[in-house]
Amino acid sequence: MRHTLAIAQRELLSLFCSPVGYIVLAGFWLVTGAIAIWNAEAFGPGKPATLRDIFMWAPFVLTLVVPAMTMRALSEEYRSGTFETLMTAPVSDAAVVLGKYLATLGFYGVLLVGTLIYPLLMEVFGNPDWGEVLATYLGLALVGVAFAAYSLFASSLTRDQAVAWMLGAMPLMLLVLSVYNLVRQFEGWQREVLAQLNIMGRFAQFARGQVETDAVVFFLAIAALFLFLTVKVVESRRWR
Amino acid sequence: MIDVRNLSKYYGSRCAVDRISFTVGERTIVGFLGPNGAGKTTTIRILTGYMPPTSGTATVAGYDVLTQSLAVRSVVGYLPEAVPLYPEMRVREYLKFRGKLRGLDRSQREAAIARVVERCWLREAVDRPIGQLSRGYRQRVGLADALLHNPKVLILDEPTVGLDPAQVRETRGLLRELASDHPILFSSHTLSEVEAICHRIIIIHEGRLIAAGTVDELKAQTAGQRRLHAVLKAPAADVAEAVCKVPGIKDVRTTANGDWTRVDAAAAGEALEPLAGLAAARGWAVRELHQELPSLEDFFVKAVLAARAARPQ
Q: How far apart are CA A54 and CA A51, in angstroms?
C-alpha cells in the first residue's frame, strides 16, 4: 500500500510538472464552459437550475481528455527505461498499476472540482436540486473511473505516448458516439443490448438525478476488468 | 552471494543466454565482459528480478530470482545501462521516491539520502532537476539510488560508459571502496577497466560463457604467446645458436644490423632473466631487452575468436 501511494504521488507530481496536465485541465474546462454558454438557457430566467445541459456532452469530451491524462503513465516509463528501475525495486506489478491509476483519479478529481463553479453559480442565482447535482457528479466520477482504467490499459500496450492516446481515445469515442446514435435505430433485444452499453444514456440517468445500481456496477466492472488486464500486460514481460 | 547455474534465456526462439554458470563471492568485484549483444544485459536483468530465466536457476544472497523475486529485488542495488531517471524530478525528490519504494521510513530515508549524496559527490546537484544534469551527474544519481538501501549485492550495467576520463577514474575508485562492503558484478566492454579493478572476470560471447577466472589466471593462458625482443652486440649466427638453447624460447629470428643483432622470439613464461644471463656470460652488450606483457585484450580477442571458430555453422 505504501508503494502504491509513493507511486501515485510521483505520478501526480509528474502530471502537474508536464504541460500535458495543464492542457488537459484547460481544455476540459474550456469545452465545458463553451457548452455552458452555448446552452445559455441553463442560466436563463425561469429555467430549471440543472446541470443536465452543461454536462450532457461530458462523456464524449472525456473520451478525449481522460486518455490524455494517462497516455504518459506507462508508455513513458517503457520509452525512457524507467520501467526497468521501477520493476527492479521491490514493488509488485499490481502496486505500480494501482498507483498510476490512483494518480489518474486524483488528477481527474481536480478536473471535476474545477467545474463546481456551475452548481455554485446556480446556487447564487437560483435554487438547484442538490440531490441531482450530487448524482450528476457521481455519474461523472464513475465515467472517469471506467475511462481511466481503459486508458491506462491503452498506455500499457505501447511505448509511444501518441499511440497510447489514440488507442485510448478512438475506441472510447467510437463506443460512446456510435452506441448513442444506434440505440434509437433498433428495436427489441438489440436495443436492450445497446442500451446496456450506452454510456451517454447511463450518464444522462445520473444527470436526471437517477442513481441506478446496475449503472454503478457497469462502470465499476469496466474499471476492474481493464485494471486486471493492465496488470496482466505489465506482467507479460516475464513470459514474452 | 550470486550463484548462477545453467541459466538460459530465450526470446521467442532466439537464444540470448545459453546455459551459463558462475558465482560471485563476498567482497569481490567481478567483471562481466563480452562484445555487444553477448547477453550481458539479459543475464543482469534476470539477476535483478526484472525477468525470469527460461531455464536454470540463479540465487542472489540466497534468494531465488524466480520464486523470491521481491526478496531479490530488495537486497540488490542495480544501475541499469542507460541510467533511466525521471527528468522532471529533482535529485532529492527522486531519491525520496526510491527510498519509499525500498520501504525506508522517513528517518531512515533522510539518513540514507545524506549518506549516498555524500558518497556519490552529489551535494551540489541535490536540489536540481534531473533533466538539467550532465551525463556524469546522472550516472552518480543512478549509483546513489543503487546504494540507497545498503544493498547486499551491487549489479551495475556498464557503469562508466559516457563518462569523461576524470569521472571514470572517480567511479572506479568508488567501486573499489564499495567492494569492501558489497560484492559487485559489473558489465563492461572496456577491457582496461575490468583489468584495473576486477578481482575476477567472466567472459561471455553469444550467450555462452567462454572464460572465467582471475585476471592473472586468464593472462597466464595467453602466456605462450608472449613475444620477446632483444638487441645484442654480437654476430647474428652466434646469437641465433645460443638463444635457441635457452629453455622456453623458440621461433627465433635474428636480423643483423651492423655490429648489432636484433632478436625476435616467442617465449613461454618468463624469459628475460635467462636471456640477460646468457648475454652477460658471453660478454655481449645489451641495447634492448623486453618481453611483451600478456594483456587481457589478447586473451579476450583469442577467446572470442576461438568461440566463433568452434561455433557449429
A: 5
Strands B2-11 and B14-24: antiparallel
State how far the Cα of B92 lies from the Cα of B113, in Å rounded to an integer.
Answer: 8
Q: Which residue has the cell 450528476?
A: A136
Give the span between the Cα atoms of A208 and A136, in whole angstroms: 7
In the block, residue with C-alpha cell 636480423: B255
- Pairing of the two strands B227-233 and B260-267: antiparallel
Contact state of B74 with A10 under an 8 Å Cβ cutoff: no
Who's near A174: CB < 8 A, 6+ residues apart?
none
B84:A84 CB<8 A: yes
All residues at 6 or more sequence positions from B248 whose CB lies less than 8 Å from its CB, including other chains:
B267, B268, B269, B271, B274
Residue A142 has pLDDT above 90, yes or no: yes
Q: Taking each helix axis from N to C terminus, what angle separates B296-310 and B215-222, rounded to the nearest 10 degrees?
A: 70
- Distance, CA of A238 to CA of A87 (rounded, Å): 11
> How far is the alpha carbon of A90 from chain B, nearest alpha carbon, in Å?
5
Residue-level pLDDT at A40: 62
Distance CA(B8)–CA(A38), nearest Å, equals: 64
CA nearest A82 in B: which residue? B84
Q: How far apart, in Å, do the first and last CA atoms of chain B sit?
A: 37
Q: Which residue has the higher pLDDT, A61 or B240?
A: A61
C-alpha cell at A164: 497510447
Residue B213: per-residue pLDDT: 85
Cell of residue A142, nine digits: 464513475
Burial status of residue A220 (CB atoms within 10 A of its CB: 0-12, 13-18, 19 or more): middle
Q: Tell me if A101 sits within 8 A of A152, measured CB to CB.
A: yes
Best A2, A74, A85 member to test B by mutation, with max B CBs in 10 Å, is A85
Q: C-alpha grid cell for residue B119?
A: 558518497
User: What is the mean predicted confidence (pLDDT) over B98-123?
Assistant: 92
Rounded CA separation A180/A62 (Å): 15
Task: Count the helices and strands in chain B (H runs, E runs).
Answer: 11, 14
Sole residue written with cell 481544455: A27
CB contact under 8 A, A89 and B101: yes
Could you give the residue ranges of the DSSP H alpha helices within B156-235? 165-178, 191-197, 215-222
Cα torsion at A101, A107, A108, A110 (round to 10°)?
Answer: 150
